[in-house]
Predict the 3D structure of the following.
Amino acid sequence: MARPREFDETKVLDAAIQCFWSRGYEATSVRDLAHSMGMTGASLYNAFGDKRALYRKSLDRYVAQNFGTRVERIEHHLQPRQAITAFFDEIIARSLDDSRRKGCMLINSAVEMAPHDKRLGRVIADVLLEMERFFLRCVKAGQRDGTITKSQSADNLAKLLLGTLLGIRVLARARPEPDLLRGILKPVAALLDQP
Amino acid sequence: MARPREFDETKVLDAAIQCFWSRGYEATSVRDLAHSMGMTGASLYNAFGDKRALYRKSLDRYVAQNFGTRVERIEHHLQPRQAITAFFDEIIARSLDDSRRKGCMLINSAVEMAPHDKRLGRVIADVLLEMERFFLRCVKAGQRDGTITKSQSADNLAKLLLGTLLGIRVLARARPEPDLLRGILKPVAALLDQP
DNA sequence: TGCGTTTTAGATCACTCGATCTATAACTCA
DNA sequence: TGAGTTATAGATCGAGTGATCTAAAACGCA
């Protein structure tokens, strides 16, 4: 019983993601956002609250679209050891095919926002914990079916995989060299495969 | 034959480092900097050029003070395998004893600045390459004296150590948990020690 | 068609941004 | 001491910041 919105919320959120993802939070102005989202500042504030709330919504959607779907797709279609390989192959391919070096928005957030915004910091930490749990499920399953080494605890191997993921993603922003990123992964893979 | 500066360049640079380190480049204003450095904006511009040039000088000094001296100290006083352990022990201790979660200014720069500032990006990439070379020297020496595995190439092991370093440093900004950071390192150490 | 509601668009708020100007103060050397 | 040089302090520049206000436009329902 009132005027409906002229914009598609998911579409304008995707535009906001692109802004925040490539420039970060501080370097993105509300005018940049409004222009890219095809709306005026007033509409933006009316629909999303303030800049920080818009960032939170953008990050939530980014995580759901990128991490959520990928984990589900990989975990349901591959054996545990292959799931880990596939996950990292995709990450490395993404990092190398990223001409603007945007990296991963979640990890960028972990660096720029987590220490200064308590609430956002918790969200980010939770997602990183989910990632660790994904790796942990893969490692445990792999240890059960004999495709992953039992020489190290599943907990520590999962933590190593999480750390390796962040390392690759961050390093790619400054040194997006195929040999470097793949070289990091090789000893890790060898460790997992060790009898 | 003119009026000498009233400030100590190294002291005001240290103050600038603290600003940029804890808040990042974009979120730090020139007024923040001038206040922390105990000088006016005009003097700041006169002495350092502009904000970006000041950031470069701050980062240079940060790297020289933190990375340069640590590498030299560790590499000259310890055996190669112990040097790697000591390096990471120090990094983890630093990450856990960092109540404001500032992390590593160089790695923060790699995320915030490297993709958007070509010149600074090269500087950062060069330092990361130096770090890789430090690890490479340690690994090669360790492989020679039998304290580090030869099951993996020294190149890849050095890359792994660099990636692990970045992973730990970034993860600590969102999840500064002792078990997590130490857990990452354990499988890496086991891999190095493998016969 | 008019009422109530909500979203628009554009102007504008006070403030802060990086950067600069001017005038004064502080020094060296002749 | 006075000429020349440089650093200082404070005011201020235009542009841009996040956020808000007002008024017009677009709907559903009576």
User: Anything to note?
Assistant: Residues 1-4, 6, 29-31, 41-42, 45, 50-51 of chain A lie near DNA strand D (CB under 10 Å from a C1'). Chain A touches chain B through 50 residues (CB under 8 Å).
